[in-house]
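Archive entry. Fields below.
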Amino acid sequence: MLETAFVEHLFYLVPAGSLFALVYALFLFLSVKKMDEGSRQMQEIAQAIRTGTRAYLGRQYKGVGIFFAILFIILLILSFQGLVPTPVPFAFLTGGLFSGLAGFIGMTNATMANVRTANAARKSLNLGLRAAFNSGAVMGLTVVGLGLLDLSIWYFLLKGLGYSIEQITSTMLNFGMGASSMALFARVGGGIFTKAADVGADLVGKVEVGIPEDDPRNPAVIADNVGDNVGDVAGMGADLYESYVGSIVATSALAITAFNQAGLQFQGVLVPLIIAAVGVLASIIGTWFVRSDERVEQAVLLKALRRGVNISAVLIAVLAFMIIKYVLGPNYLGVYGAILTGLIAGVVIGLLTEFFTSANYKPTRNVAEQATTGAATVIISGLSVGMLSTVLPVVVVAVAIFASFALAGGLQNFNMGLYGIAISAVGMLSTLGITLATDAYGPVADNAGGIAEMADLPEEVRERTDALDSLGNTTAATGKGFAIGSAALTALALIAAYVEQVQVIKPDFQFNLSITNPPVLIGLFVGGMLPFLFSAMAMQAVGRAAQKIVLEVRRQFKEIAGLLEGTAKPDYATCVDICTRAAQKEMILPALSAIIVPIIIGLLLGVNAVAGLLAGSTVCGFMLAVMMANSGGAWDNAKKYIEEGNHGGKGSEAHKAAVVGDTVGDPFKDTAGPSLNILIKLTSMVSVVFAGFILAFSLIK
Amino acid sequence: MLETAFVEHLFYLVPAGSLFALVYALFLFLSVKKMDEGSRQMQEIAQAIRTGTRAYLGRQYKGVGIFFAILFIILLILSFQGLVPTPVPFAFLTGGLFSGLAGFIGMTNATMANVRTANAARKSLNLGLRAAFNSGAVMGLTVVGLGLLDLSIWYFLLKGLGYSIEQITSTMLNFGMGASSMALFARVGGGIFTKAADVGADLVGKVEVGIPEDDPRNPAVIADNVGDNVGDVAGMGADLYESYVGSIVATSALAITAFNQAGLQFQGVLVPLIIAAVGVLASIIGTWFVRSDERVEQAVLLKALRRGVNISAVLIAVLAFMIIKYVLGPNYLGVYGAILTGLIAGVVIGLLTEFFTSANYKPTRNVAEQATTGAATVIISGLSVGMLSTVLPVVVVAVAIFASFALAGGLQNFNMGLYGIAISAVGMLSTLGITLATDAYGPVADNAGGIAEMADLPEEVRERTDALDSLGNTTAATGKGFAIGSAALTALALIAAYVEQVQVIKPDFQFNLSITNPPVLIGLFVGGMLPFLFSAMAMQAVGRAAQKIVLEVRRQFKEIAGLLEGTAKPDYATCVDICTRAAQKEMILPALSAIIVPIIIGLLLGVNAVAGLLAGSTVCGFMLAVMMANSGGAWDNAKKYIEEGNHGGKGSEAHKAAVVGDTVGDPFKDTAGPSLNILIKLTSMVSVVFAGFILAFSLIK
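PREDICTED_STRUCTURE:
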């Protein structure tokens, strides 16, 4: 076991890991950028997507900027009143800034890599895979690097200001709210954008006019491709940035009471940070093993990606063991068990998601079969699959909660157990650099496929980009499961941290968190209702925005002469603009509800009710998120399965029914579902930040 | 305030109320039976429905009998081990018996009244309304009467055996499980039967062969009409029987600790019983005011029904005031406030349900409008409406919890507050005699419409039966809201009672019901997952059963010569038989899951986890039940709204899209949704009964 004095130096691993991640990301970025962009037509298409993405981002940052300005002022006032720690308003800004920056870099990178991936696929499958995957890794490493950078800066700053380790952790716990808010806006806004464009493009282009998907004559086709980037790249990145930082600060905050008696507080605080830092190394090494031969087979490609992820996981498992053994000492190997629990749970939930949403397995095949008796049976069976698919992830989460609690020693020392639950989330997220890379890979490959289609590249190339794209769908499913699982564990860690935070602010506060206490019960109900409210708003927003796109696309086909014949060019920018405006407008209400409801409940019924609300929203949010993601995934792949020639193939009645399922699934899996991950964390973050305010002004104490 | 000695005599009001209800029900039954059955053709159709219903009931009771026998033996063994009170196995049987009896009487009565209602409508609208409503009242009063009878018998028996009042209430708390199990089987089995028949009949009859609904040539038409009875009459009756008895015994059990210091335990126990007893009087008086003139207008008819319900509510409000004032004394008028809270909450949730599901209001109109852009948008908007419709009921429940807790004095004496929450459920259910009458009225009117159609009665008569049927749809919506609301409050009372029960069994048990305690958290997750699992199983069961009906109906149309021409008769019995078998087979797994999961969680993680599970299943079950009921209702009425000639009317593309929505809604609103009410109560009941067993054998204490 290492001396405390030496352990202090280990903190430098955190900025080192951050810099390593960012530099390596820059290296990958430049290596992708060096690649050839292909023909002039390809470059033009890529430029259009890039311009659209920039336009969207610019507007989003403007809108979000206003929100951040208002909340900054509110937090400033609260800090003058002593109701939040002084650094919080500023940390709120840096959290938002870094999360936004991660999104910006990820998108710049993705819109640069898509066309290069398409071009690389002209030469070989492996080159295409490497281009797309490396650009995914840029995103993954940027998220991780910026997260660690934010933590390092504030740690040194607060230490320099003379804060004690307790003060540092309890202050840093407040920092998640900025990142969370930014993430929610990115996820909801991006989710609305992408599905409005997708649904709108399909409804007129495919159904009414009868042109293929990704046809350049469709005025919404660029918006559709822009949407892949703003929804899946920026949204997913911001979501996981938040889980990553959130799980680390929650674990650190919980270390204070957990290691109080043992006198290992500093070590306990440091462990999640160091594990995250060495996770960078593990992730980067993992990326080196992602390479494929030229067989255009799903299984081969998937194996290539999985190899990288698995190597990273094994590496971190070894490194974490040494960290625990030498930093916390051999008495705390149970904490290592908790980390492993999280690592394994993340993988298992991902695999379960794949089982329920891949056409290789029974559930999705059943949905496809139900398409033969019409749309109604497709919908019923898809919803059933989604509902049924909550069972095993709940079992996994339950086992993870209990195992990490018990292994860390929670049965003897309750607070150690809470630390164990929190650090299991850190374990799950420690290889985020590479897991997010496999995720962010998807939209790049998807875009590459779109560009290949629009630029009319040879059949052989499109076969390759299709294979890459289809792999992206699988990783997206696994990634969604992983995002939900990590969000649930992070949210639980945050609930525990919230309770500690209240105790820090008001040490004599008497909690009554019993589920028979009416404020807690009411909190459970209101919290349970939030995900339903939120999902309803998000789905209706997609519906309204898609309607606008439908009208615009119809207008262009009517008014622009020669558009259908290919002699005139559509006005792509207007569709992008409509989606952008709609997304910006529609994201406000759902996002605000996540922030305001916990505050209102707190003011009326006190902190017990807030804790109940967090538990309720975590439980119901988890169920609904899993259900929506998996129903959506099953519908999507059931449709693709039929398109491959099963149950009558493309154009059959079964196919039409499956398209209905897929369209219902779009807002499920890409708008409402993934936003719920952020909702359950943001409510906790808001509760932490406003804890002092609620304690001071709530009607019931 | 009355002397305790005198108050003891007030208990006689309970058997008196019971007898009054049963005798009055018999009187109504005979008065309906006296009415003319109409033409021979009508009598034949009615006979076919009757035979089908009997066949179903016979088989159901046989299947359920086996389940009851097994569980009786298990309980008997547990009682020999001293793990459950000795009377419990027998009370389990009487609970099941009385609940089953209520269903049997209700169905016998409904299948007798349907044809008489149709025939009465030949003479006048008011006569038709009276016939259908009176038969509904038979059901309502039978449920109430049998419930009070069961309670009276056991009360006197246990008292005769020398049990103290504490022992009586804690023993009687165990009695709900029999009724709950029977209710779940009735609801799930009936729900599967009715929707399999409905969907199957429509898919082949309406869509493939092109004959109208309720056409006698359709082999599944009788099964469809049988289904209305077994699903809506028996299922709803058993559901509310259970809420009624459950809320009363939970309140009585909670009275023991609540009134411990005040020395008013006996009074506290008695109050819910007396209120229920005088509720019989209020309900019967209310029924006298249900009468209409001859205007075939929805609003007029609705007013007629509402008048009766409102008069009953006002009466009970007055009577309850006097009961509280004279039995508990003027210091306890806050308890009266809690009763009023429940009474009002029931009405408000009912009205909210109507708002979200009636085509007179915006939400359902929006769903209808979305039908113009196809099935996908209908589904998305219907699901959004369902999700959004959870918000206000949650607010109502939250306000009801807090108000009844605070009014009853919970802020000073926690246990009084829990008593307040429980008695608010009793208040909500006190007028069950008449609220259930307006509910059970629906299927009778629906059947009457079917008989009028099948027997080809004149246009004018069918206009009247259509008006009566359409009124039934509105009351069904309100009734569903009421059933869910009362189930939620009853479940909360049962959770509190469960906690007390554990304390009675093991006075030194140290609870840790905090939501940060991992077993509680795990319980919340597993409990939250149960409604999703349950709904998925129920929906898939309907799908499978409907598929079988589709094949059978197709077979008959192919093999029976002259069937379509009307020269040959279809084989109704086989369709009834298929539905019966399917319902019996498919109801087992969902029902067992509700019983086994709480026991497994208890054995693994102890009673804290069980309490968490109950809270989780109540919260998620409530959300899902409201969502499914209201999505289903909105789809149903959106379809009807289009059929009235809006958005293109019958046969338009919009209509086809709306039919998809309606078909998805069928298992939502009539199978899975309402079964969830029972699920959340049954899990509590099972937990109460097995509390001693769990305390003795759980791995974690």
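CURATOR_NOTE: Residues 588-643 of chain A form the longest helix (56 residues).
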